[in-house]
Amino acid sequence: MFERSRCVKTPKTYGEKTIALASRLDVINRELRIEKDDYFIYVPLVRSLHETELKAFKEKIPECEASTHVFPRRRKQIATFAEILEDKLPQHLLSSVPRSIDFVGEIAIIEISSELDSYKAVLGEAVMETYKQVRTVLAKAGAVVGTYRLRDFDVVAGEPNTETIHREFGCKFSVDVAKAYFSPRLSYEHNRIASLVRDGETIVDLFAGVGPFSILTAKTHDNVKVYSVDANPDAVKHLKKNVRLNRVEGKVFPIFGDARDIVERQLSGVADRVIMNLPEKAASFVDAACETIKPVGGIVHFYSFIEISESLEAVTQSFMENVELHGRNVDRILSSRLVRATAPYKWQVVLDAKIL
Q1: Which pLDDT band, with edges at 50, 70 and 90, does 315 fall under?
Q2: Of 29, 90, 152, 207, which sees the most CB atoms within 10 A?
Q3: Exposed, middle or buried, 187 (CB in 10 Å: 0-12/13-18/19+)?
Q4: What CATH number does the domain located at 183-355 have?
């Protein structure tokens, strides 16, 4: 869309100076795009210049002139999620609007407080209006629970769908958020662990889910072997699909079953590195991790939860005692860090430990 407008026309060599002066005088029409050709720059104006303003231009830029020009209109900036809701919610509820949104492929996931429960559809439509790539908006309808770490969702806008393709660090992940645990907030961890792996390693991902740790590790290393274990049949179904999607056949080996049973039957003493991303229950599988690590030792990435009153040192001490209880020793803690807040006063943490 185009519009003819008053403007200041100057040689291109004076372009920056012209824009700076027009900006100081607050006369630039921000709804139109500044134009240029081979010789001149054209700065659109919101009004005609006063005589004193034109004099100021000519003093700084003798070759400038007042003119008219046809300008393209700027694409209107999309309003933010909060701005869209300003006219759709009672004023006293605006402070309760969700401050964060998780995006998994074309699905947006929000957490809606009880006072906004009757406005779920309004919130969902606002998300879709703001983020054009979104096809489905889900509202959390419960906590993550159960062996498979699943939660219930309500569809509040868009297609009634919980399955999508999520892209992360050049990988594609087939995910059904209602049937297999997946968190886009762990993308940094997925990449961090993959970057620590060295060619030639054998990795056991004890609670692999749809494979974000396993797939990215295999995708970024030529010579690795990753055994990806999960007890959730739906997660393993998507994991197998993701192996094909990312062309890592022969490097990632999906295994369905209980981690401890699988280790005892086929993965004893094979691993240079073990990933234990099951923070709710990882402590109860330390025996399996110790059994999986090669006799010469290896690395364990141990994830857990702590309350705000607890310390990383306490988690570290408990983990070291647990390892010793199962016949191995912690040579050293390579790293310990907070990963993310998961609830008020609760954090997910990770220990990277060298086990002998």
Answers
A1: very high
A2: 207
A3: middle
A4: 3.40.50.150
